[in-house]
Design goal:
The chain is of the alpha+beta class. The chain contains 17 helices and 20 strands. The protein has three domains: 17-144, Methyltransferase, Cobalt-precorrin-4 Transmethylase, Domain 2 (2-Layer Sandwich), CATH 3.30.950.30; 231-406, Heat Shock Protein 90 (2-Layer Sandwich), CATH 3.30.565; 413-488, Orthogonal Bundle (Arc Repressor Mutant, subunit A). The strands form seven sheets. The protein has a six-stranded mixed β-sheet with strand order 12-11-15-16-18-17. A four-stranded mixed β-sheet has the order 1-2-5-4, with helices on one face. Helix 9 (212-218) runs parallel beside helix 12 (353-361), helix 10 (259-273) packs antiparallel against helix 11 (295-308) and helix 11 runs antiparallel to helix 13.
């Protein structure tokens, strides 16, 4: 079957055959087959309830998980009618779900359930009161009473992005960014029609009325209407924030604009603000120039903060605090329902689903909770500490920790070349000693012995050889000092050797 790129739907501009069959299932897309072991009307109702209680989306009935179109025309008419009436038969209260019957190029019939997200109602099964919630590409439930209460609370907080901003001036729309979004999803209508289609605006008294979500996404200056819709970057000298005569802020910059613009600005600005350090490749013995923190970690942290922030809490912008030993990214508002600092890698709930869907379609937000997982994996790949999330006084903070700041001066070019040239001549223990000194900066003999898995006596022998060759320096004036530390010789200020 030939896959065409234009939408098969009159409701959702993304619903092309390629999207429905080939895009991986995510927060906004679920496929359900009709083979003998396929979904029953009652199980389909559970999936619809999950989407109603989450971010909305499309459920495609008649397409298997693998993307094979199965043609609902092959079903018994009585069973097909039950699928048509599934919302009426199983879901309470009455749900805003539009059933669209589409045909693929070869005449196959598929049902698209267009599930509209709701900010107020809690949806459940009509027959047993079970409540479900969609998280990423899966449906969770039935939820217990405590989970239902938390979900109800978060639905209340979600209302802010749905509110109309009556004072918004349409001249403040960032046409270029909105046009970029339109091009990205290949929408064929006008920009105004796109905003209405994506529930970012409504027609009111024959005029377009813009929602807060539209202002955050596509206004030239959201801060004009939504206070503190910005990012503030503060660089501190040292590992603590000091005041008074010890005031240690060396840079204080505010980034402003709509969310896509903020992401692009922050990416460029933070990248330039981070220092570069050397990393020893254990396979080759060569030193590689790496950034203070991996881009995947801090950029995902910034995107998540912009996406999940409680914008109704005015006066609290997103903070990026850059210390010598860590980067802290904070946003206002408690963690969403069912999400804790312990399960943040696996749980997902969008506080701002309108923002989330657009940012996802523009390529800024990753699906299936990949963003948070990417923060963890990129830090691990860079051999840095595991990210730390805290939730204190309704301020969620991501901490990325790095000890590279303890390199007060870069390792000598001569030493780096010597290690690279002689790497293959070192035994495994010698290689591990050099790597440990570089990554731990000033280890003791005891710490080196534990790291390398050999005796302290053996470590002392290798260390003395490195000291005699001029590669390593000992930090102690005492002849016998078990707390003496060791480091690679640094570059001198005069000759750089």
């Amino acid at each position: 079957m030939e896959i065409i790129m234009s939408s098969l739907s009159n409701i959702d501009p993304l619903a092309s055959a390629d999207y429905l069959c080939n895009v991986r299932e995510n927060q906004y897309l679920e496929r359900k087959g009709i083979e003998e072991s396929g979904v029953s009307p009652s199980k389909l109702a559970n999936e619809i309830i999950g989407m109603l209680n989450a971010d909305g989306g499309i459920i495609a009935l008649g397409i298997s998980d693998g993307g094979v179109v199965q043609d609902l025309n092959e079903l018994d008419p009585a069973k097909l009618e039950r699928y048509e009436k599934v919302c009426h038969e199983f879901i309470t209260p009455p749900a805003n779900v539009v059933l669209e019957k589409i045909e693929f190029p070869e005449g196959e019939l598929v049902f698209l359930y267009h599930v509209q997200q709701d900010y107020e109602s809690m949806y459940a099964r009509h027959d047993n009161d079970n409540v479900y919630k969609r998280v990423s590409d899966a449906n969770f439930g039935p939820l217990n009473n405590d989970e239902v209460d938390k979900l109800r609370h978060d639905k209340f907080l979600r209302k802010y992005e749905e509110q109309i901003c009556d004072i918004f001036d349409p001249q403040d729309i960032d046409v270029a960014t909105l046009q970029n979004y339109k091009d990205r999803i290949k929408y064929e209508g006008s920009l105004d029609e796109l905003l209405v289609k994506r529930n970012l605006a409504i027609v009111k008294n024959d005029k377009l009325a813009y929602k807060n979500a539209a202002i955050l996404l596509f206004s030239e200056d959201p801060d004009k209407y939504i206070p503190s819709a910005s990012i503030r970057y503060v660089r501190y000298e040292g590992d603590k924030a000091a005041t008074g005569k010890n005031f240690n802020v060396t840079k204080d910059v505010r980034l402003e604009g709509n969310i896509p613009t903020l992401i692009d600005q922050a990416k460029e600005f933070i990248f330039a603000s981070l220092d570069d350090f050397f990393f020893l490749d254990m396979k080759t013995g060569k030193f590689q120039n790496i950034s203070e923190y991996p881009e995947d970690a801090w950029l995902e942290g910034i995107v998540n903060a912009l996406f999940h922030r409680s914008y109704n809490l005015s006066g609290n912008c997103i903070y990026i605090k850059h210390f010598d030993d860590r980067l802290e990214i904070s946003n206002s508002g408690p963690l969403p329902a069912l999400v804790t600092v312990e399960n943040i890698r696996t749980q997902r709930f969008s506080r701002n689903p309108r923002l989330g869907r657009v940012l996802s379609e523009m390529g800024y937000v990753r699906e299936l909770n990949e963003g948070v997982n990417r923060i963890y994996s990129s830090m691990e790949e860079s051999m840095l500490s595991e990210p730390i999330y805290t939730n204190v006084d309704d301020i969620v903070t991501l901490k990325l920790i790095n000890k590279v700041s303890k390199h007060k001066k870069t390792v000598s070019d001569h030493i780096m070349k010597k290690i690279g040239d002689e790497w293959e001549s070192y035994n495994e223990t010698e290689q591990q000693i050099l790597s440990c000194i570089l990554t731990r900066f000033t280890p003791t003999v005891t710490e080196l012995a534990v790291h390398c898995g050999v005796s302290e006596r053996a470590i002392k022998g290798y260390i003395n050889n490195f000291i005699e060759s001029g590669m390593v320096t000992r930090n102690s004036d005492k002849i016998r000092d078990k707390n003496a530390t060791y480091e690679l010789r640094k570059r001198t200020e005069n000759n750089g050797s």
